[in-house]
Amino acid sequence: MPVCNKTVIKSDMLVLDTSRCYPVIDGIYDTGYTCRKVAQAFAGFNCDFAFCMSRHKSHVIAAKVLVHNKWIVFPRE
User: Fold this and answer.
1) What is the residue-wise DSSP string for 41-67?
2) pLDDT, mean of residues 24-45
């Protein structure tokens, strides 16, 4: 799922099969804005969402829940 500047680029999406389940993995669940946009783009498909880090303890699967409000900088950005 190509996302650039929090915008889903649907023209670059691969053709997906509705009979399959797709994992959707993102670096951080912060505000949930990107997750909502991606979920809207995947409407009609069976997807499981997971995140490397989350600022909130919630229903999402996250490897680490952050307990601070510091800014996170990813080297690739």
Assistant:
1) HTTTSEEEEEEEEESS-SSSEEEEE--
2) 82
Whether residue 2 is predicted with pLDDT greater than 80 in this model: the reply is no
Report the distance separating Cα 20 and Cα 77, nearest Å. Answer: 31
* pTM to 2 decimal places: 0.60
Give CA–CA dist 23/43, Å, rounded: 14
Those residues with Cβ within 8 angstroms of residue 65's Cβ, 6 or more apart along the chain or in another chain: 53, 54, 55, 56, 57
Q: Is the dihedral of CA 13, 15, 18, 19 positive or negative?
A: negative
